Amino acid sequence: VRVHGPDGKAVLRTPAMDGTLEPRWPEQKSTATIRIPDRTGMLRFEVWDADTAGEDAMGCAMVSVADALAYSTLDGDISLALGPREGESDKRVSEAAAKGELGQLLVRLSFAKDAEKTAVAPSVAAPATSSRGVAPSSTPVPTGSKGLAPPGQLTVRVVGGRGLLNRDTFGSSDPFVRVHGPDGKAVLRTPAMDGTLEPRWPEQKSTATIRIPDRTGMLRFEVWDADTAGEDAMGCAMVSVADALAYSTLDGDISLALGPREGESDKRVSEAAAKGELGQLLVRLSFAKDAEKTAVAPSVAAPATSSRGVAPSSTPVPTGSKGLAPPGQLTVRVVGGRGLLNRDTFGSSDPFVRVHGPD
């Protein structure tokens, strides 16, 4: 077996097991540790027949890093149904896959996370793959727990603000908040609160529910001053969906430090951000996950953003729990195979596995 990480590089090659379609690999020669910086990317497990004339494909399984982290919470073997590689050119493999005759690969996964660090809000726009807006030392991102298992519904409530930027020459601003979902569409506009830099929004008019299909994407919270002549920016906070799901496990308010919007053109906002004078937004998040479904291995190659290879009714993806908090180290052990494809005309194949990891 070859195992490939999310970046496609091979991280493990097991020894070939002579003449068997039900191999069991020795633990000390079939285990590798992979650095996992985040939940993105794929692991690729490739099974090959070792012949003197070359190597013949026997099947492939792909598992998303997010699912691998969830599997790491389980004890015992994880059963991966083998399929063809993406763009498979080997006719024998494609035909066997169509008949469900490529067999299964058994693996074990364990995860050791790095020490938790408190997220700090930068003073400039953050990249679209990470959260921006978590107030230093106020609400660190929690690890693991019940809120980390989409698909489901995320309820967002805008509670209040602290020390907001005053955009009015006389008196105080009339702040309101727009919330944008992972697809960029606005999902909520709170009412404007007259003349205050410490607003508290009424719950019934500042709450929205957002459909969350997976852990990707960003939530955007924009604060504006409602003026008769137009709207003036007061700051923005961005939170990744992955972090929002983790925050949904907390009780009480989550404090988001406001910064400028990406590519901010309003000089007042940029200057105030540089001085740390945009204030904070207080929100609450809760998540209700859909009923768990067992993953089914398709007979054709799956897209690179989802797992392919989970045997029907054998090892469903678990929800929540300890294994869902990178960065950290994922230990992959290739245990054995069941009912593998025989590529030899006489006797049985000599299977080995390559594993490709994220780095």
Count of helices?
Answer: 4
Number of strand segments: 17
Q: Which structural class fits the helix and strand makeup?
A: mainly beta
Low-confidence stretches: 116-130, 134-138, 143-147, 292-306, 310-314, 319-323
Largest sheet: 5 strands, antiparallel
Please give the share of residues in helix. Answer: under 10%
What is the count of distinct domains?
A: 2
**Chain oligomer state:** single chain
> End-to-end distance, in Å?
18 Å
- Secondary-structure element series: EEEEEHEHEEEEEEEHEHEEE
Domain C2: 1-78, 135-254
Region (Disordered): 120-153, 296-329
Organism: Neobodo designis (Flagellated protozoan)
Protein name: C2 domain-containing protein
Explain how this protein is built.
The protein has helices at residues 65-71, 91-98, 241-247, 267-274, and strands at residues 2-4, 9-13, 31-36, 42-51, 54-64, 78-81, 104-113, 152-162, 175-180, 186-189, 207-212, 218-227, 230-240, 254-257, 280-289, 328-338, 351-357. The chain is mainly beta and 359 residues long. Residues 116-130, 134-138, 143-147, 292-306, 310-314 and 319-323 have low confidence and may be disordered. The chain folds into two domains: 2-114 and 294-357, no CATH class; 152-289, Immunoglobulin-like (Sandwich). The strands form four sheets. Strands 1, 2, 4, 5 and 17 form a five-stranded antiparallel sheet that branches. The chain has a four-stranded antiparallel sheet with strand order 3-16-7-6. Strands 11-8-15-14 form a four-stranded antiparallel sheet. Residues 120-131, 296-307 have a biased composition (Low complexity).
